[in-house]
Design goal:
heterodimer; A: about 40% helix; B: alpha+beta; five-stranded antiparallel sheet; 10 strands
């Protein structure tokens, strides 16, 4: 007699929350925003091809162009859909960072309530300029560094084009220096991001608390693929 | 009745099955044991098998005595003995006992009590249809990456013992952490996912139930952890329930 009991079918996988903070200020108009949109579309396809990453990676997109706004709230990789972003206005990066940190905190609380384990969340900041909300940015950057210090977050800052202020981006992390995107190679960047989320999803560096995650990471480093999109 | 199968990630890594399980049904005492060898330790699969083998041996010896005494002491004896055996084996091979690290779950069912002892992130579910409950889940942190092992220095202090009257227990299930996503309803509270245990109980009570079929189910289950999967169960045979209910059944485990 065949034995096929009912089992719990909910997605119990540990989650890796990945927030993309994207500069959509007016200077991104034209080719940059086009390349960004195409790159993100590619990412939405690629992430669905990885059996683990599509269930484990949860992606949120926050833009900053005139205002900081949540374009895509945290969404599982298998459900994420591309969205055409338009460029306009100033660069309120500080407000966007605050929004991202608040969202992330909520997400962690939701994981804990659902009994889900999680990896250390990733925060990507992509900008072609510098923050126009300087005071807000300085305080928000300190918040980001604090979260990083408490091992609650990994921060990746990426400068796009010749006018990206890498000095400002340096304030976001005490452990990882900002890198420059090679030209407008958003496609390469997003391919790399998808591959990196796959690599992370295949690791066991997850736990049910920030301290647990930090500990898990000591026994298992996540090997990220080389960043072919970066330039020195 | 039960089985252990190698998880997908262990197959990929070529480590083989580090889970072990066995059971023994006697006229007076029924014993079940599961163990999960620590993934990071080289000989933990052997540690797990040794632990299960000796746990059953000591369980039967203790509980089968004329004056069996306190179930808590049985389980302590089991842990002490398993530790000694692993230490001996380790010494004979010039290895530290920690190389054989494994979690351990043991259940002993007599005519009067159902008792369960656990070290590490094993899963033990007891009860009757409609009232299955997880007993002594590990401290929350133990479900991931960090757990206690029978070879740890403080293992005896970390032994979690549960004793319930046998009249309240129609079924006992032991498992290792590999099945936690599928058979638990909530990872935070470690509460069971009741439909699974109801279906499993009904299956084992059926005349055609076989361990091979449970093994086939485990092998085919995408548990989303890639870990080894183990399930051992003892269910009171339906036919042995007297007319006035399971309370009066004696030695009614199959």
């Amino acid at each position: 007699m065949e034995f096929s009991p009912r089992v719990n079918e909910e997605n119990p996988d540990p989650r890796i929350a990945c927030t993309l903070l994207l500069d959509t200020s007016s200077s991104m108009s034209g080719e940059p925003i086009n390349q960004l949109n195409q790159g993100f579309e590619l990412f939405c396809d690629e992430i669905k091809k990885d059996e683990l990453a599509k269930k484990r990676a949860e992606i949120a997109v926050i833009t900053f162009g005139s205002t900081a706004r949540i374009e895509i709230p945290f969404t599982e990789g298998r459900d994420i859909q591309p969205r055409r972003l338009a460029a306009s206005g100033t660069t309120p990066m500080g407000a966007a960072l605050n929004l991202a940190l608040d969202q992330l905190q909520q997400q962690k609380t939701a994981y804990k309530q659902a009994g889900l384990e999680y990896y250390r969340p990733w925060l990507f900041v992509l900008t072609d300029g510098e923050p126009t909300d300087r005071t807000v940015f300085t305080a928000a950057a300190a918040r980001v560094r604090e979260a990083e210090q408490a091992r609650g977050l990994s921060v990746f800052a990426v400068g796009v084009g010749p006018h990206a202020n890498l000095k400002q981006l340096e304030q976001l992390s005490a452990s990882r220096v900002p890198v420059k995107l090679d030209g407008l190679s958003f496609g390469e960047f997003f391919s790399w991001l998808s591959a990196s989320l796959s690599a992370a999803s295949a690791s066991n560096a997850f736990a049910s608390s920030d301290a647990g995650v930090a500990k898990a990471e000591t026994t298992e480093q996540i090997p990220l693929p080389p960043a072919g999109w970066a330039t020195a | 009745m039960g089985a252990s199968v190698t998880g997908t990630s262990h197959e990929a890594a070529g480590t083989g099955c580090e889970d072990a399980s066995d059971w023994e049904v006697g006229p007076e005492v029924t014993c079940l044991a599961v163990a999960d060898g620590a993934g990071s330790r080289p000989l933990s699969g052997r540690g797990a098998r040794l632990a299960v083998e000796h746990a059953l041996l000591i369980a039967r010896a203790c509980a089968g005595r004329n004056e069996p005494g306190d179930p808590h002491t049985w389980l302590q004896l089991i842990v002490k003995d398993v530790r000694e055996k692993i230490t001996e084996l380790a010494a004979s091979e010039g290895r530290p006992p920690g190389d054989f690290a494994a979690t351990l779950g043991v259940a002993i069912l007599t005519g009067t009590v159902a008792c369960v002892g656990q070290i590490g992130d094993t899963i033990a579910v007891l009860g009757q249809a409609g009232q299955f409950h997880t007993v002594a889940p590990p401290p929350r942190a133990e479900y991931v990456n960090e757990t206690s092992f029978v070879t740890d220095d403080g293992a005896l202090e970390r032994l979690r013992v549960t004793v319930e009257p046998i009249a309240d227990v129609d079924a006992v299930f032991l498992s290792t952490d590999g099945l936690r996503f599928k058979v638990l309803g909530n990872l935070m509270t470690a509460d069971p996912f009741p439909p699974f245990f109801e279906d499993l109980t009904a299956y084992i009570q059926s005349a055609e139930a076989s361990a091979d079929e449970i093994r086939r189910f485990l092998a085919g289950l995408d548990d989303q952890s890639g870990d080894d999967k183990t399930l051992v169960a003892a269910v009171r045979a339906a036919a042995e329930w007297p007319a006035d209910g399971p309370q009066a059944a004696r030695e009614g485990v199959a």
